[in-house]
Structures are given as structure tokens and as C-alpha cells.
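Deliverable D4.2, example record:
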Amino acid sequence: MRTEHEAGVARCRQIVEGDLDATVNLLQAGFPYRARRYWADGLTRVGSYSLPDGCPRYGYVLEASGRLVGVLLLISSWSPVNSTAVRANVSSWFVLPEYRACAPLLVLRAIRQKGPTYVNISPADHTRPIIEAQGFRKGAEGVYAAIPAFGRAGHKARISVLSQEFHSGPHIDPQTLALMLDHQRFGCIAMWCETDAGAFPLVIRERRLRFGGLRAAQLIYTRSIQELEAAAGALGRFLLGRGIPILLAGSPEPLRGVPGRYFPNRLPIYLKGRETREPFDLAYTEAALLGL
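Output generated by the structure prediction step:
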């Protein structure tokens, strides 16, 4: 895929291992508030797990006159909901100013396959009409900032961080265990919540809020909103013990029995494809591998 441009001919192709340093340079230029190590470490994580056949490992670049002039990260994985379905997180996107006319090539190349469900979890406000025109729809309208330690839900539950003793536990299926171990390697906290009704997985990642620099936990994975509500009190106490009072969960509505505030139209999740995705499922996305 090529386009004529006054500065030369731009070609869109997959990112390969030899491109990683130049890719980091582009990403740092496009997102100067992020340190170089943020991108280098993130790409290392993206390259570290099992990938569905036929998916690009890192995404796509624009190349012109032998140098990289644009980048779009595409983070692909098997779906935690459907083990035969593929998801692809359309992530960080930057093109040098003199090649902005070529920028649509990256997106068109990235989302042209019919099989995957494409996810965008960090669209800038001014890009939302653009991605809606590309066929994306909202999967979650906003985010719930919860203070789960002070809720009435889930206080009889027990939280256990994933450890060797769980690796052969009868309640862990191989796909879920692989997801939890992968995310533990990504720097997330993978845990089990045990209740009278059974045990279920939770994955979170610590982050800093831009407003005030408060520590918070981003919910990365749970199987259902009902299980999250059942775990809320125990999870809140676990987080508070680590000095983290706030849990951020992408959700269409407030969590029942969990105090907090709902922020509509903040951190919306956009989808394009066949799969129905739980709004609070951010497994194998930039939230898990890069950190928002």
C-alpha cells in the first residue's frame, strides 16, 4: 500500500524487530509526556506472549525514503471470552507532520481484516467522530471511580494473589491461567477472589491519576460485573492495604453497593467487529501492557 506525497512515497507495512528503536523514537515524538523507557518496556511486553496466527506482532509503520515517518500500534490477542476469536487493540498513533496526508493509510491497513474485533480504549476527544465514521461503536460510555473498601458488597470474600499453589488448582482452566500469568508478567496484579458461591479471577494494574497524582487501580479483567460486585469489599481492603483507595472500572453504570462516582463519556471503550465485549475487560490492551 503506497501513496504519492510531495516529500516522497510512503509505504505502509508491518513493524518488524529491526524497527523497534525507530518506532520508540516516533512514539516519543508523538507523546512527549511519556518517557522513552515507557515505550521500550511496553513493546517488550507486546512481544512476549503467544499471538494468534496471522496477526501483526506490534502493528504498522509508514516508511518513506528509507525512514519511518508514522506508526500505529495494534495489540492483538485471543479473546478471553471466546478462545477462537481474535481481538486487536488499536493503540498509539503518530505520523510526522509532513506526512499527515498519509496517516489514514495506517488505520485502513490496521482494521481491514474482517475476523478480529477491534478495540479502541483511549480515543482523543477530537478523534471520536472519525472512529465512529470508521464503524466503531461505544461498548462502554464511561468509567466508575469506586472506593470499594467502604462499600457494603463483598466483605465476606477473600482475595489471594496468584501464586504457585494456584497453578494446579481445580478451579483454574488453562485459558484463564494463561491470561493471569501473562498479565502478572506485564506488571499487573493477578488474583483470585473466593466466595461462598465459588472462586473467580481478577486482574488489576496500578496507575497514577493525572489529577492530583493519586494512586488508583485500573480494573483489567473480571468475567462479569456481578463477580466484581461480589469481590468489591475484599478487593477494596486489599487495595487499601497497598495505599490505593480508588478502583477505576469501565462500566455502563455505577457498581451496586460500592460508593464512588460515575464519569460519563470518560475513558469510553469503542468496538468494531462481531464480538460482544464486557466493558470492564481490558485484557491484552494498552491498559495492561503499557499502562494508561
